[in-house]
């Protein structure tokens, strides 16, 4: 079994800036946050979870049938799931590219349904996860979110999406690209 997800890799300019941002935010917190590690930062389009190795070729073939244009994406704004009062996930939103990400995620859902991979039940909300909170403490989360929202992120072209394998290790997840799919 391989733990799989489909996502958009973020460019080096994003990867290099995530650690300084999360370290700065972490200085004001008493709560332990598992921050995203540089190199692993991505936008998830669909999480497949544990998938039998024999199914991977059909997943790749099916994803290869998706035809969508390349688009511009840019992070901006910040928020928390399920809400800023009791956050479990701290994230950045998108100033540009949200609609295209939603369309691409819908296409991924549609084609994978044809190979018996269930559709997502929840509405897709494009976001870039900064960190996961295991046990929220009494923090001023709005200040943390405001700090994240002040960061200015460059626009970049999304010209592909990736099928990733994610291995959970004691030091954190290790993501390995299995296949990439170009956007036209």
TrEMBL record:
Motif mapping: HXTX 2: 127-130
Short name of any one Pfam family annotated for the protein: LigT_PEase
Keywords, ordered alphabetically: Hydrolase
Residue intervals of the Phosphoesterase HXTX domain: 8-91, 98-172
Catalytic activity: a 3'-end 2',3'-cyclophospho-ribonucleotide-RNA + H2O = a 3'-end 2'-phospho-ribonucleotide-RNA + H(+)
Gene3D superfamilies assigned: Cyclic phosphodiesterase
Motif (HXTX 1): 42-45
Enzyme active site: 42 (proton donor), 127 (proton acceptor)
EC number: 3.1.4.58
Function: Hydrolyzes RNA 2',3'-cyclic phosphodiester to an RNA 2'-phosphomonoester.
Family under the similarity heading: Belongs to the 2H phosphoesterase superfamily. ThpR family.
Record protein name field: RNA 2',3'-cyclic phosphodiesterase
Organism of this sequence: Pseudodesulfovibrio portus
């Amino acid at each position: 079994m391989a733990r799989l997800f489909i996502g958009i890799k973020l460019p080096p300019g994003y990867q290099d800036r995530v650690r300084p941002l999360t370290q700065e935010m972490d200085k004001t917190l008493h709560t332990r946050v598992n921050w995203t590690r540089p190199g692993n930062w991505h936008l998830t389009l669909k999480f497949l979870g544990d998938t039998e190795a024999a199914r991977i070729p059909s997943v790749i073939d099916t994803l290869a049938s998706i035809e969508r244009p390349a688009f511009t994406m840019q992070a901006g704004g910040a928020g928390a799931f399920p809400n800023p009062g009791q956050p479990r996930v701290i994230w950045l939103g998108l100033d540009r590219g949200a609609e295209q990400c939603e369309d691409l995620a819908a296409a991924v859902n549609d084609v994978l349904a044809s190979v018996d991979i269930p559709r997502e039940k929840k509405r897709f909300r494009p976001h870039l996860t900064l960190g996961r909170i295991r046990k929220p403490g009494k923090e001023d989360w709005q200040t943390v979110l405001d700090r994240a929202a002040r960061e200015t992120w460059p626009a970049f072209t999304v010209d592909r999406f990736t099928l990733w394998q994610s291995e959970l290790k004691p030091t954190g997840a290790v993501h390995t690209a299995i296949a990439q799919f170009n956007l036209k």
